[in-house]
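Example 105, ligand heme C.
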Amino acid sequence: MLHKGVVRSVILSAMLAASIATAAADETSLHLTEGPGLTQVQASCSMCHSLDYILMNSPFQDKAAWEKTVNKMVKVMGAPLTADDITVVVAYLDAHYGKGAPAAP
Ligand code: HEC
């Protein structure tokens, strides 16, 4: 009979393998718009999932919605952003990927 801990570590390694594959694909396929805050976004938002998540949500998120998303990533998911990082990242997301911002190339 399988022990629960074994099952969990199998699931975790599968998730890890998937996220490594995604991160590798990102480097060649996804370039976010240049601008202040991009470095923080790349550093803080690509460790758990692809930066595609930002593009997917871009059409309908205004600044308040980005604030909510980033806070959720920090408080619920455990993203390691300082209060300063959050301000910079939200400003970046609103400027380049906010509802009504110029479409990403
Ligand atoms: C600690 C891991 C982690 C980090 C770091 C992280 N995220 Fe997430 N993110 C998740 C998970 C897990 C989901 C899927 C949650 C769900 O489906 O409810 C998610 C989902 C999302 C979504 C989809 C919409 C939603 O609300 O579920 C967006 C957009 C997003 N993240 C943006 C970001 C941004 C921007 C950053 C950087 C500030 C970031 N994420 C950093 C774990 C993380």
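Summary: Residues 25-29 have pLDDT under 50 and may be disordered.
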